[in-house]
């Protein structure tokens, strides 16, 4: 594409190069479409630069350091020193490899990547503004919006990238804070809070409800809460931040609950109260695209918006705000545009929290299953009864399987414990394939491994447990 006043065109315009965007662009190109991908920053989006990848890299480093310092009863003694600047440098190298990989894939499949911002002038035309200010016009047959989301601010705590920070800045600190106040206790706040607690920060969390991680089964959260206490993390439940002031380079945060007001000191205030879909300043008012109340773009099962020429995927298309949903949505949108009978008809989307221990969940929990009219049976198998968990000295947690009492169909699986994020995929597949308890229990799992617990939990639900 020649930048300037020249008008050009393509089959598919993709706006945003995050997980949903670059996946959609590559898949559409694989299917023979002429694709242009417009990205404001770099390929990879929030996931690669300010989310999934950098957070998991830091979590791994923090866990490594913590495990050396706390080897348990294995009989190993050790001490450790670490350099956060070098850890951040290693993290950046990980990001760079992924970014370069995405760029190579786009080149391989002839996806034309343009750095700039897109603004819809109509349902078939967009204005592209390059970083140097040069503007060009692009006609398209179809467009896919994949502009992601951004951290939400909390009233009275405006982001300044220094004292009041979002997860973006929290993932790029070069010095471990002495004290950190975290507003919000969802999975992002919990992951980062646990990470910095393991690096030596005194972490204080402010949560408006009576427990953390409210999206997950309370029984799972209980296990994580116990570990939080062991790490010295303080949680102020049923509390609300009232405001802050600065004293001697630190912040004094005032919080209130039904009982009293409390002041907390901090070097950093991390605001982690959710995200906002990036649906503004796109010119959607010039199209037939409609928004939901939360600002996300309204889409159908094919990820088509209310404008037949425009699709939306990823965070901008609504919750849950997870990269693996965006990957799937991007493929669906591209395939629909190419004329394939594709749809986002998945039965369940797994969700994870890389806390300590990890939490992973897919499908219905007990409460939602009952609300949906099911009579249920459950099977629960503890890590402490797993030979593999014992050899790893990771015995906190359990696997819980929920099934339809009438026919044994698996409705949900919920895990808290070591490597829960890796165990949940088999559970997701079971639900996607409409598997039954007998299917899971009858599948031979290698021994000794953690996935055996999925089969064991199914056997508990069936009333034929051997190892419990």
TrEMBL record:
EC number(s): the record gives: 1.8.1.4
What superkingdom heads the lineage? Archaea
SUPFAM superfamilies according to UniProt: FAD/NAD(P)-binding domain, FAD/NAD-linked reductases, dimerisation (C-terminal) domain
Q: Please list the cofactors this protein needs.
A: FAD
Q: Could you say which protein family the record assigns here? A: Belongs to the class-I pyridine nucleotide-disulfide oxidoreductase family.
Question: What miscellaneous comment appears in this entry?
Answer: The active site is a redox-active disulfide bond.
Q: What is this protein called?
A: Dihydrolipoyl dehydrogenase
Native source species: Candidatus Methanoperedens nitratireducens
